[in-house]
Structure formats: C-alpha cells, structure tokens
C-alpha cells in the first residue's frame, strides 16, 4: 500500500492511498484543479474520498468532487457542518467498518474543535497492509495492532510553541486552541509508545505547523524512539 501526500499544512491537506487495486483520497483541502493535477487528471480512478472533519483546509473540494461523481465519506456531523447532501455524500459512523473497493475502512473518534471528527484505520485485502490515519486531534484514545503504515499529525512541540508565545509571535488564544485540538510531538510519542509497532514499515508525520514545528528534529526524535523510517509529508 502506498501513502502519497499531495498537501499537508494549514493551507490544505490531501493524501492518496493506493493498494494497487483501489485508490482513495484522504481529505480534499485543495482545489479540484490541484487534486486533478496530482492525479494526472485521472480522477475517475479514485474510488472515494474519506473526510475527517469540516474545516476548509481538509474539505475545500467536497462539493466539486461530489459533482464529479466521487463518493465522499464523512460523519453526519461533518456533513451537517458543511451543508453537504446528495447521493454522493456517504455517512459513516465511528467504529462501524465499511468496504471501499479492496479496502476495509474503520472510522474512529478523534478530539478536535469540529462537529464530529474521525480518523481512519484502513486495511487492504490486496496487500494485507494496515494504515492508521489520524490528524487534527490532540489525543487518540485507542490502541491498534498490526499496523504497517502510520500517518499521524505532529503539529507542534510544546517548547517551540511556548517560546513563540513568550516572544509574542503566537497569541495565547492560539496556544490554548492548539493544546486542545492538535497533536503535539510529545503526545505523538506517547501514542507511539502505547501501540504495537512490530509490523510498522513507515511512519509519516503530517500537518506540521509552519511556525511551531521543526521537521528535522521531529523526524530525528521519532526515528530514535521507534527505530522505523520516518517521513515528513510535504518535504
């Protein structure tokens, strides 16, 4: 299974999952034109789009994708927040698995300032890979076994954030929101320590903050912790 970042920042998030039989978009926080460009104008090859929540850096192209015949999967709360409806809007429920081509998809609750946000556990019947995708959450309550690919938000580190607040580069209100809505380096480490990494082949750090992160440091520290190859989405 391949995990391919198209965009990964507060300006837009979009990724492709491809097991050789089924291609699925994770998020659609780019314009339709940009998504088509990344797909080499083969949008019809995509079996669906999985959306985590309604914020525009993740959901920008929902309407355009639905109009182009792409099934867009999201929770009822996310659909209501977006005002999204129609036969291409497919509602999902946390902890209720569904099939999408050769993929088995299990949504799970995440912790973010959104209506009903979720992450996704994706298993390929073709490759037997298991991908965990979680972003825009400050905590993940679940533990997972048999993961082969982890794509997880690593938005900021507490020391960089506090230094920026002390320098008046980041308002305290932004600091408080990050603490209760986004995954810090420290919480990512706790999450990885708590999970079975024995089959993990690669770890992707996604959705890094422009000003409160350090990509090389994050990559180095997660590699030391896990002993697994670590990649930064967007590099």
What is the topology?
Blueprint: E1 2-9, E2 12-18, E3 23-26, H1 32-38, E4 46-50, H2 56-59, H3 62-67, E5 72-75, H4 76-82, E6 89-92, E7 98-100, E8 103-109, E9 118-124, E10 130-134, E11 149-153, H5 158-166, H6 172-179, H7 185-194, E12 202-206, H8 215-226, E13 230-232
Parallel strand pairs: 3-4, 4-5, 5-6, 10-11, 11-12, 12-13
Antiparallel strand pairs: 1-2, 2-3, 7-8, 8-9, 9-10
Helix pairs in contact: 7-8
Task: Characterize this entry briefly.
With about 240 residues, the protein is α/β, with parallel strands linked by helices. Helix content is about 25%, strand content about 30%.
Describe this structure in words.
By secondary structure, the protein is of the alpha/beta class. It has one domain: 4-Layer Sandwich (Metallo-beta-lactamase, Chain A). The protein has helices at residues 32-38, 56-59, 62-67, 76-82, 158-166, 172-179, 185-194, 215-226; strands spanning 2-9, 12-18, 23-26, 46-50, 72-75, 89-92, 98-100, 103-109, 118-124, 130-134, 149-153, 202-206, 230-232. The strands form two sheets. A seven-stranded mixed beta sheet has the order 7-8-9-10-11-12-13, covered by helices on one side. Strand 1 and strand 2 form a beta hairpin. Helix 7 runs parallel beside helix 8. The protein is globular, with a radius of gyration of 17 Å. The two termini are 20 Å apart.
